[in-house]
Design goal:
alpha+beta, 2 domains, about 5% strand, 4 strands, Alpha-Beta Plaits, about 375 residues, 10 helices, single chain, 4-stranded antiparallel β-sheet
Amino acid sequence: MKIRSAKYHIKQGAKSITKNGLMSVASIASVAACAFMLIISLCIAINLDRALEKVEESIGISLYLGDDVTEEEVKGLFEKLEAIPNVTDVLYMSKQDALNWAKTEWEDDQDILSGLEEDNPFPRSFELSINGAKNQKQVIKDVTNLQKEFEIQLVEARNKEEQEIQDIIENPLKESTTVNKSEQSTQATTQAKDSTTQATSSNQSSTESEEITVSIGDKDYEYIGIEKIRHSQKESDILLAVNNTVRIASIIIIIILAIISVAIIVNTIKLTVYVRKTEINIMKYVGATDWFIRWPFVIEGILIGIIGSIIPIVICIFGYSEVTNLIYDKMPFVKNYVEFKDTLSMFLAIAPVTVILGALLGVIGSVNSIKKHLNV
């Protein structure tokens, strides 16, 4: 396109906007509403993504060990944890490490922890780092299975040790003394009676014990190996659900507003086409190309789209800064979870997308409105 022709098309497009004042304002307002919704949804989505990134940076699983777990068992557990897929790092914290960490965290209130060196209440633990929030659920499942396997192994080992000790107690060295037959028979009779009584009582106790037995993995079972598993799966799920909901809702609203915007732009440009239909017909008869006739209307649509998108950008630049500052002032705890993206970085990313969307809506509306008038 020649520069002279370009100037003519831009001039004609700008004139058309001023001629159809009311409809042009309606078109600009509809595009502005669509652009405004796009900006709001992008601001929310970008900041939610930042919140998820922050959660992922601190995401992890903590495993707290019982006091009966030996150092040798800790080493074996460490190797198994390292072998779990999507676990990027495993950190072991001894009781002393945990106490030192608490002193660092409670620097201003260290006096509370004084005197705990001799009777340290902090448990030993493993801190697992995970490769992304999306993998946390599977890692938790793997760790829970390992907790049960380790508990079974631990209980079997402890039962075996207790049985060996019991056997030693019940089978002491026998003295080589002769027992007379009458005493043996008396003892046998007494033992028979005792065994009958014991069998009855053992049956009762076994029945009672069966009633209160809790299996490994049950809700009320108290683990002696990995006593507790702590994670932030609920928080991650909530953030992901909110993020997905906002995105889906935003897309639906933007599509609806985009359709309305295109419809209004079409009607606005149709007015211009109707006013200039005689001129268009003459231009066609004297040999003007379709694109020469179409360009002023396309530019009109683009101008409407750009103006409609710039207005909400300007409003949101000032509004975004005020809203984020207000949230920090009224709800300081939010800083612990969300660090809002700064205004400049935010709108350097959002503004081009919004302007392109506005111009695209204008082009779609203008091309559709003039198509039938070119078939002369």
